[in-house]
From TrEMBL:
<protein>
    <submittedName>
        <fullName>Serine/threonine protein kinase</fullName>
    </submittedName>
</protein>
<keyword id="KW-0732">Signal</keyword>
<keyword id="KW-0723">Serine/threonine-protein kinase</keyword>
<dbReference type="GO" id="GO:0004674">
    <property type="term" value="F:protein serine/threonine kinase activity"/>
</dbReference>
<feature type="signal peptide">
    <location>
        <begin position="1"/>
        <end position="25"/>
    </location>
</feature>
<dbReference type="InterPro" id="IPR007428">
    <property type="entry name" value="MlaA"/>
</dbReference>
<keyword id="KW-0418">Kinase</keyword>
<dbReference type="InterPro" id="IPR029058">
    <property type="entry name" value="AB_hydrolase_fold"/>
</dbReference>
<keyword id="KW-0808">Transferase</keyword>
Length: 442
């Protein structure tokens, strides 16, 4: 569900073509040399720089950030401190001549310029593609500048919003010579890419040639529940008076004291995990869960404010540039993703979407919403459409019981399953990068 959750620095600062019809997934095993076998360490640390693929420098990429005016009604209805996102922005890297274009959808809460988005841009650009980077529908800039409901989480509507953005980009970049259209997304963006592809089958604006889902949730509610539970992991003894964050800071302080200097680079977690201050799996789990809770707080606050629901920010309260948002952020932190679904997303879904569902499923409203927002709702489409593939990790922390089986059953040889890597931890590993490019070049 999450974007690349933490770089080592954030750990300190934020404490954070043709496919066979065979049903056998490609399971990478004995020859896979990704070095981190703990899903929590992999999720946080990512790939050591020596094991990443060569990428072009930013200075050698012809790119520009563009603006779309998609929600003009918000330019006067929102506080002035939202001015940077009242118009929607995206990044386009263009080749000198005709080339295929890849749309990239970011993961939960991620901006179009996030580290993972920049990595994927460089990977594709270096391979000869135009690249368009789009923020996640769960990011505050997308919610403000592009989404009519500003209440993300219902995948069909998120896909509709993304599709509108992609159409606007195509129109704005009408002079760009595009030989074929492709689509990918990571984490939640991978799930949304599947729904966008399904929508395009009906609308036909792009007729995507290749669609790749990178570490997507299968059942959205399962992934949310998994990540929410990490926040409640027990990490301290009952007799220990320190908070979780004090414990983490103490360990890191002791580690750098023993080294005699402070030098944080991408290898620090590997060194830390080999020292006496090694973080336990429970501590790493709670660290990941804490970052996810902050992402949920951002979504809660932004959705409540835009829609004037009064759950976090009183409806009559006027917010100005100098207004302290701390009390509202603290209140938003008390409502996790499950709380957001129940208090903001589900009521909106009942009013606007419940009676329009083309898929009728049994169960409660929450179960219907969950089903309609998960890959299960697209099972027939995913199984029959051979332009869509998925890459995932067997130890990904967002997966629940039966999720890997679903991917293997419905994607067959179009599913590549790596034995470890956590959630997106191996996305920039050289073997994974080669597999990604091979899929798009077939």
């Amino acid at each position: 569900m999450c974007k690349r959750l933490l770089t080592p620095l954030l750990l300190v600062l934020s404490l954070l073509s043709t496919f066979s019809l065979s049903s056998q997934a490609k399971e990478v095993s004995t020859d896979y040399q990704f070095p981190l076998h703990s899903p929590f360490e992999a999720t946080i640390a990512g790939t050591p720089s020596a094991l990443r693929p060569p990428l072009p420098d930013s200075d050698n990429i012809h790119q520009h950030d563009y603006t779309l005016r998609l929600r003009p009604e918000r330019e006067h209805s929102l506080p002035s401190n939202f001015w940077p996102v009242k118009t929607f922005r995206y990044r386009l890297a263009s080749q000198k001549g005709p080339a295929p274009l890849v749309f990239i959808i970011a993961g939960t809460g991620a901006h179009y310029t996030s580290g993972t988005m920049e990595y994927l841009k460089k990977l594709f650009y270096g391979a000869g593609f135009h690249v368009a980077q789009i923020s996640s529908p769960t990011s505050y800039d997308f919610m403000v500048g592009a989404s009519p409901y500003a209440t993300p989480g219902y995948s069909p509507q998120d896909a509709f919003d993304l599709y509108a953005v992609m159409r606007a980009i195509k129109q704005q970049q009408s002079n760009l010579e595009v030989t074929a259209w492709h689509l990918t997304g990571y984490s939640l963006g991978g799930l949304q890419a599947a729904f966008v592809s399904h929508l395009d089958e009906r609308e036909g604006t792009f007729n995507f040639k290749r669609v790749l889902l990178l570490n997507p949730p299968v059942n959205l509610y399962t992934s949310v529940s998994n990540l929410n539970r990490l926040v409640h992991t027990q990490v301290l003894d009952e007799q220990d008076p320190r908070t979780f964050y004090q414990l983490m800071l103490d360990k890191i302080t002791h580690y750098f004291s023993s080294k005699g200097h402070f030098n944080f680079d991408e290898a620090v977690l590997f060194e830390l995990q080999s020292s006496s201050q090694k973080l336990t799996s429970n501590e790493l789990a709670m660290l990941i869960g804490s970052v996810f809770r902050f992402a949920a707080a951002d979504i809660n606050f932004t959705s409540d404010l835009i829609n004037r629901r009064g759950m976090i920010t009183p409806i009559q309260k006027r917010i100005y540039d100098g207004t302290s948002l701390t009390p509202y952020f603290k209140k938003a932190l008390l409502c996790d993703f499950e709380c957001y679904i129940e208090k903001q997303l589900l009521p909106l879904w009942r009013v606007h979407f419940k009676d329009k569902m083309s898929i009728r499923s049994k169960g409660s409203d929450l179960e219907k919403l969950t089903y309609a927002s998960s890959l299960y709702a697209l099972s027939g489409y995913l199984k029959a459409n051979h332009k869509i593939a998925v890459m995932h990790n067997a130890d990904d922390i967002i997966l629940g019981p039966g999720d890997l089986g679903f991917l293997k059953q419905h994607f067959g040889e179009r599913a590549t399953i790596y034995p470890y890597g956590g959630h997106l931890g191996n996305l920039d590993y050289r073997d994974n990068a080669a597999d990604i490019l091979e899929f798009f070049h077939e």
